[in-house]
Structure formats: C-alpha cells, structure tokens
Amino acid sequence: MGRSVLDMSVSLDGFVCGPNETPDNGLGDNGRRLHWWFREDAEADPEGVNAQVMGELMGTGAVVAGRGTVEPAGWWDGDHHDGVPIFILSRTRTAADVEQWPLITVLDDVAEAMARAKAAAGDRDVLVHGVGAAAAALSAGVLDEVQLHLVPTILGEGRRLFEGIGAEPHEFELTRNVEGPGVTHLRYRVLS
Amino acid sequence: MGRSVLDMSVSLDGFVCGPNETPDNGLGDNGRRLHWWFREDAEADPEGVNAQVMGELMGTGAVVAGRGTVEPAGWWDGDHHDGVPIFILSRTRTAADVEQWPLITVLDDVAEAMARAKAAAGDRDVLVHGVGAAAAALSAGVLDEVQLHLVPTILGEGRRLFEGIGAEPHEFELTRNVEGPGVTHLRYRVLS
Q: Which among B160, B167, B172 has the least Cβ separation from residue A152?
C-alpha cells in the first residue's frame, strides 16, 4: 500500500504562502516565489532533480487537500493530475457543490478521506496538500511522510506550514535530502 | 575579513523557540528540543558533522546578538566562548548595565555593532544570534550568511526566525548542505 505524503514548498522562515491571500492572489504576496523551482509560470519544464521530484508528485494515485487550498485554485478545474480521485476536507461544502467534477469527493473526516484515498491509490502514494490538511492529517495520525521543498527566500508574513496545529510535539526522521536548482528537497517519515 | 553569519536552530515549521518563554524557560515549551543535536544537556560531545559545525561556531571571533537573546541566557555570564568580544543590540540597556562584563558592549545601531564585531574578529567570522539581531542585520544589509540547523520536529507555536521583519523579500543562495545525526545544516549566502 502507498504512503500519504504531505508535499509543500516552504520559505526559510516557514511560510507556505505570503500575506493577503485572495482568489486572485492565491499564494499571497510574493507567494509564487515558492513555486519557481518547478517553473509553474514558465514554458520550460523543471530540470534534473526538480523534474524527478515533480514526477514523483505527479505519479501519486490520489489527492487529499483542504477547501482552503482547492478553492483559491479554482478546484483545479476538477482534475489535479491524470484523473486521479481527489478528496477535499470541508465542514461546510457538500456533494452538491462538486457534482460537476466527478473526480472530487467532499467529506469532513480526515481519517475517512485518507482511507478512501489510499484505497483508490493502491500501490501508489497519496499526495496530501495544504496547511489545513497537513495539520488535520498529522493530528489524526494518518500522515506517513512529509516532503518539504525548502526555497531560499523569506516571505516575512503569510501562512505557516502546520499553522493552527497547537503546541503538541511531533517528531520526524529524515529519509532523503536532495538538492535541485534553487531548492532543497527534504523528505521525512512521521514518527509521532 | 570574516563574514557575519546568523546561526540558528529551527524547527520544520519555522520556529526558533517554543511558546511561553520566560527567564526560567529560555527557549520556551519544548524549545530545548532544537538544541539536542549539539547535546547541550548531555555529557557527551556532539558527533561527526555536528561536532565540526559546532567547532566552526565556536571558532568565530566575535558575537552579535540582541537583548532578547542574551538576557534569558543570563548574559552568558559575560563570556559566550573563548573570551571573544560580544556586541549586544539594545535600545534600553546602557554601558552601566554590563560594566561587570568587560567583553560585552551594548549599543543600539546594528551597522555599528557589526562593523566593530568584524574589526574585532579580524579574519574570523562573526557569530550572529537571535531573532531580533537576525531581522535587524538582514534589514540593514549587514548580514553575509545564514546557517540554519533544521531539526526534524515541529513546535506548533513560539517565536519564528526573522519574526517582525515585515514582508520585504530577501533572497539567499545555498552554499552548503550537510547532514549530521538528527539535524540538517544548511548554509546560505545572503543575496538581498
């Protein structure tokens, strides 16, 4: 069975997006800087190690994310990558909100979301994305790994990785440390 | 001439100390976890790469820090390491407060503090330490390098690296990435 892997680009001061997030400014002020490494806005593809890491992400078999992540991203037009099933955590949205997107399931329980995502992904990993999903999955004990793409910039303000999780300690073990152009990819196993 | 190098242990969620800092709880709740890699509380010395990195730190020729760092640490009893000069940034303290410690100079201008520290250190680097000193030195353009000791834990709450610097962007370039037991040492050159 695959693993659930949180995947986030993060600044040196711990932010995953800048301040002033709006639907038109989805990653906040300067937040798009965090995505330069995979050249989201460029026509060229990512290079070397970055291409390999992005290939792993896009090889996942299901996606779990929160409403706060998917809504500013326009619900990914109903398909994050390759038609894999998407499970969105929300206390307020319902199935009727997403019926135009058959790949998307909305539910409010992270353990159920992860169980269904893992079942759907089979041997492939589950891509977990977003601050809310990160905190919920880690707190519920259903997060297996964390991959951080550490970007050599500081944003100063914005939204922090694991924001709102509280002061309960969690421990990790590094399993991979690889450098790509302009980014350090650090992969950890969740210990607690 | 040596370089000014900010040196901080930081959690995966960007904190350099936990919540509830007090003089008796200097690194905040769970904050001492960030110092395990150099075995501050243990009788054994740090190992391998960690010993090398700690040796570099202790080979610096002057120290620049903020009052918020040195006061909870009891002014390091007047000597951070090896009798090198210490420059403390403070708007409220005066020379009279530190006259019992001849190695310590208190001043309120970070550019002057860094110039004097570099002159005193000669060919050796200047160790910069603390959230306030980090933000002040980076904003003033007198910080040459940043070394982060990335510890595989999250604290959830506390004080962030570069807290209070505002949303002005700053860029860095990785110059070294080495793994020690239980910690990743990342060294960056400040670009802007």
A: B172
- Spatial distance between the Cα atoms of B144 and B60, rounded to a whole number of angstroms: 14
As a whole number of angstroms, the distance between CA B37 and CA B183 comes to 6
Give the type of residue at A178. V
The two tokens of residue A117 are 């995502």
Secondary structure class of B93 (helix, strand, coil): coil
What residues of chain B lie within 8 A of the CB of A30, using their CB? Answer: 167, 169
> What is the tens place of the pLDDT at every residue in A49-72?
999 999 999 999 999 999 989 988
Per-residue pLDDT tens for B107-152? 999 999 999 999 999 999 999 999 999 999 999 999 999 999 999 9
Helices assigned H by DSSP within chain B = 48-57, 67-70, 110-121, 131-139
Q: What is the DSSP pairing of strand A126-129 with strand A4-11? A: parallel
Give the global pTM. 0.94
Q: Which helix (H) or strand (E) holds A146?
A: strand A145-151
What distance in Å separates the CA atoms of residue A32 and residue B116, rounded to the nearest whole number?
A: 38
**In the beta sheet, which residues pair with residue B150?**
B10, B184
